[in-house]
Amino acid sequence: MSSNTKELLWQSRFSLPFDRDALLFSSSVHVDKKLYREDIQGSIAHVTMLAEEGIVSVKEAGEIIVGLREIEEELTNGTLLPHWEDEDIHTVIENRLKEKIGATAGKLHSGRSRNDQVATDTRLYLRRQITELQETLGGMLRVLVEKAENYQKTIIFGYTHLQRAQPISAGHYYMAYFNMFNRDRQRLHDLMKRVNISPLGAAAFAGSTLPLNPERSAVLLGFDDMFANSIDAVSDRDIVIEFISACSVIMMHLSRFAEDLILWSSYEFGYLEISDAFATGSSLMPQKKNADIAELVRGKTGRVYGNLMAMLTIMKGLPLSYNRDMQEDKQPLFDSAETTIGSVSIFAKLLEHTKLKQERLAKLTAEDLSLATEIAEYLVRKQIPFRDAHRITGKIVTWSIASEVNLPHIPVEKFREFSEVIDADIYDCLKADASVNSKKTHGSCSFDSVALQIENARKQL
Ligand code: ARG
To answer: Is the minimum distance from the CB of 426 to ligand 1 under 6 angstroms?
Structure first.
């Protein structure tokens, strides 16, 4: 057994120093050092409250605050390097404060445990990340509205089962993603209500005999409210789970979008061009142009889902209140926040640097079996029951494929062999733009509907 040299915060009760390997194993400094700003912010609020309540003197609080500000500076510019022997970032800061101002440093921890301290740091971190993610999503929404506007009149194929289904306005397609990412933004807004609650003042888990003022600490930290129950305040990691869950949904949306970009930019589809600045090549095959950014986003989705599963499993079956297992929340939390913000941000940029191949799309959509639904609805307008109309149209499609005559080129006499209600006006609906614009229903793919969707979206930006 090799022993540790530094005294740990909780050491006094023990007769043997903590084993170095055990300390190395339990140290979280390499991960939670990211929380140093939040930790100092929380400490300044706590000591301000302590001074206001007369628990420490104003002079002591002043010294502590000056010291903490200097430590923040030292950690930012790298003159203070957090060491694993300090166990966690809270201890790094506490030990450094002691070096700087002596015994007064110990007063900062009156009525506070690392349990409510770390819960506070986590909420402050989440608040910052949620705000940043919301802003990043806002950037994505702006690109989507712009795309929808630019390609409002471009007709593309809409798909079901990855089979060409019906022609639609490309704007309609982009607005579908607008709705998805807008819901993501709303989800974060909703989550913020539960995140922005202060756990500070719960102490270890049972509260304190000191006359703390948790309401005041909450106000000082800009929280909307304070905890209602001190056990729950230190034990709750629902907000971390909810946040990673919201990140997972965002990544799921991105992965679907990524898949569309990858497929559409392939030679086989050839609908879309990714700018050379956002594509990669092959070290062996000189002709290759790959959509690596989209693939990476799709791949990172898996990591974020893994984080969600990790968090749910870490919390499963934990007895109340705090357990050291909960220290493991930070890696999944930080990774999810950074991965999701990074992915949304780069994907929005990638999207900006894509172009639909309008000429090719116009040619492809002009003559395609995806116009078949138009024939069925034409027949319905001529009073044929839809089920019969569907059957008749199916036969027309079979004939079209077998005889290699595309729908708009089938002579009217031929059409009439399938149904005598068909007249020459059938050709009016066998045009992609007519098909798109004959849609009358709310939220449909017509140019007018897309224009309305864009107008409403603009109001939400
Ligand atoms: N490093 C710990 C964490 O992140 C801080 C809380 C430690 N509390 C304790 N009772 N050991 O969860």
So the answer is: no
